[in-house]
Amino acid sequence: MAFIDSAPDVSIHYEELGEGFPVVFVHGWAMSGRVWAFQRELAERFRLVMPDLRGHGKSTAPAEGYAFADFAADLVALFDRLGIRRGGVVGWSFGVQVALEAYPALAGRLSALVLVGGTPKFTASEEWSFGLPATEARGLALRLRRGYDRTMGEFFRGMFAEGELTREANQRIAHEIVIPRLLPDPGAVAATLDTLAGGDHRAMLGGVRTPALVIHGGRDAICPPGAGRFLAERIGGARLEIFDGAGHAPFLSDPARFNRLVGEFLGEVALSD
Predict the structure, then answer these.
(1) Hey, where are the domains in the chain?
(2) 222 φ, ψ to 5°?
(3) Domain spanning 2-272 has what CATH number?
(4) What percent of the chain shows pLDDT beyond 90?
(5) What is the pTM of this model?
(6) Contacts (Cβ under 8 Å, ≥6 apart) of 35
(7) Residues 34-66: pLDDT tens digits?
């Protein structure tokens, strides 16, 4: 079991597999590094680092400190402590915005960005139609207070589009990811949800110069597909892959395609950089 201390009161747990070009996988809100279980096969070609964000998984849940800047500082500390001088980041959902927040500090060390099911701005506004209404986040926070375990289960199931998962895929996800996972600290989840609802990283996208691959589910009900297209359009040279029929977690519902695309992209970057 591996940890790094990223702040006086914060220890970040991470799992490390494989050798070669290092790639840090950053999970989404209310999840943990275990959500990348189906991507472990990539360790045959790359050095995979899968941390738990603060307040999630086995990482420390401090009483405060859940701004995007705090999560980004943890990611930078992980790069520093593991001696990653040239590598990639795969971010999913909330992890996309954590990666974007950390980008200015890591840009000189990043050779690849993979942004999965992400958005630069979670909450819709008058000039941003690719988000969810602010009432969605407030309603979710209320449901969490009333029934934490039940609401977390409902949120996870809501990541998948109707008919997206076969019976076999559903059983595999349940046995390898859902059942063994540790539910995050309720206070951390609530604070992180507030951060997610208030974040806006649109203005910094034009400054991203790192080769990027954007992957999005065509039926994503949590981060609408338009948000993924916006990311790809605003990041110069970014590639866009839409998984038709997939919801918010295409790396779980179609891991074979996801791993192939990500492996090919990372391989190209590692060879050319």
Answers:
(1) 2-272
(2) -100, -50
(3) 3.40.50.1820
(4) 95
(5) 0.97
(6) 27, 28, 92, 177, 181, 249, 252
(7) 999 999 999 999 999 999 999 999 999 999 999
The whole-number pLDDT of residue 272 equals 78
Beta bridge partner(s), residue 128: 125
Backbone angles phi, psi at 119, to 5 degrees: -155, 150
Query: For 109-116, what is the mean pLDDT?
Result: 97
| Residue bearing tokens 């990223």 | 6
**What sign does the CA torsion over 117, 255, 29, 44 have?**
negative
Residue recorded with tokens 């701004």: 67
Residue 114 in tokens: 């993979």
